[in-house]
């Protein structure tokens, strides 16, 4: 980054903060702080819902996923459109009829206090940990741009997120998110154009796709019935359906965005906007990652994309070994590049046997290059156990910093960072609101004034920010950020969805039955997660089915008196 | 601006708020939500088909 980039970077950040503060001046009550402005239009809601889910992680980690594993991750989203149709048609009218602050308040009205606390606790636990993983993303940006130690950038980013959230409220989030999303997408299109433009002259876009396909990076749909495969059509459709249904239908960070809108029509249109746009968006971002992979077949990539961790070992014993591996990597890369050149040349000449032979040779070289990268990771981790095992999350930011024009780099870094702040803000708002409404107001202070609850909500938001920050310091242990978020969600979301499905559709099941069923189902998911080798997406289905099935069984077994909720908590 | 304090769990449920014009989608060519949902789900099938063809083309 040069002076122009820094000027754009800081100008953009200050501009966003000033704009958000100016637009949200005068926010004083809990209702507005938690729910945001009820007059927002469907486009704002649609982009807002998408931007919350598509945080900085999406833009940093998803291209890395595409770089490492290709397009298969897109199947994770196959169940999402169906889930959003169900949320729009079934969940949304139910929530709006109740006019609740949080989704878990509904569980209290339908069942009893303990079930409400259980639902809120599952959300707080899952989302609190996820917030830690996502705070890690802007820290990666800062660490890569400035070369600072990652733990310091995590603390800096975390504190910035807390201040931004507590001072602004969810309206500020919505106001700036759509602009950030627009700039990020413009930046991604620019990155795509630069990628294609900077390929060698003899390599067309079709050749680039052929190379990506030749290295198995373009397998977007896998029809395999093998449940151990992480992403298949079936795990995506079924597991993804339950994951998305739970996320959009029961997660307070999403529910708060659409259930208080002015009209149900606008909320539905916002959800349908996401149902239509999500898969193409993820496909594009993954394809961008696959194209970065192709680009780095012709340009020599760093042997390890986390440059800060790499440079930290220069001059040490490990550094000497890393230098040897780097030299070997350079040689393998040069050989691979020549083999890919022969492959493309043979393809252009229509010489299929020669093309196949060159492709096979290139694949062998790629395997060797990957083996070197793996050894580099081992050396780095041995030298410093706090070094992340995977550098996939650094791939796209490394490319942006290295190859995009100055000014654009500064703008893109600024909006990726701002997007991280925004999505974290909405996540922390949801955590603060749920803690205030479902725990604090419910258990500690039932009759305080609204100003008191607003202050409490801000304090709890800040507290969750600190928890997330602490957890973020350990997020380097995860394999890939975007996957880690989905794995974490899948462990908890199935049971959460089961709780709400029982509440909505099984009127004869009472609070005690569903409470113990949810605990048993969650325990089952934990046990299966640590013992079975199946795609994490299936746990959404298993958790939900177990919760619903056990609720029915427990209800049938429990004496009538034990399964009846206390009168004050009965559903209306 | 202030609003009434949030309802405690034991309070009676708040009155249902009016949702004006919610039955119509306001989208030209899509008079009912059922049609919007059908198009979204049909689009999903189409997208999966196109992705499968894309995968096969570059396998």
Write up this protein.
Chain A has 572 residues and is mainly α. Chain A is 76% helix and 0% strand. Chain A is built from 22 helices and no strands. Chain A has helices at 3-23, 30-35, 42-53, 56-69, 80-98, 103-110, 113-146, 150-168, 170-197, 205-214, 233-250, 252-258, 264-298, 307-312, 317-348, 352-383, 395-403, 408-444, 450-472, 481-505, 511-531, 538-557. Residues 1-18 of chain B have low confidence and may be disordered. Classes of the chains: A mainly alpha (572), B mainly alpha (59). Chains A and B meet through helix 2, helix 5, helix 6, helix 10 and helix 13 of A and helix 1 of B.
**SSE pattern of chain A, N- to C-terminal:** HHHHHHHHHHHHHHHHHHHHHH
Fraction of residues in β-strands of chain B: under 5%
Binned, the helix content of chain B reads 40-55%
Please count the helical segments of chain B.
1
* Multimerization state: heterodimer
Low-confidence stretches of chain A: 567-572
Please give the radius of gyration of chain B in angstroms: 22 Å
Helical stretch tally of chain A = 22
Q: Largest interface by residue count?
A: A-B, 59 and 39 residues
Helix coverage percent of residues of chain A? over 70%
CA-based shape of chain A: globular
Helix and strand run of chain B? H
Largest sheet of chain B: none
Please give the radius of gyration of chain A in angstroms: 25 Å
| Largest sheet properties of chain A | none
Distance between the termini of chain B: 61 Å
Q: Which spans of chain B of ≥5 residues are poorly predicted at pLDDT below 50?
A: 1-18
Query: Would you report the number of β strands of chain B?
Result: 0
For the residues shown, what is the average pLDDT of chain A? 84
The chain-level structural class of chain B is mainly alpha
End-to-end Cα distance of chain A, whole Å, is 60 Å
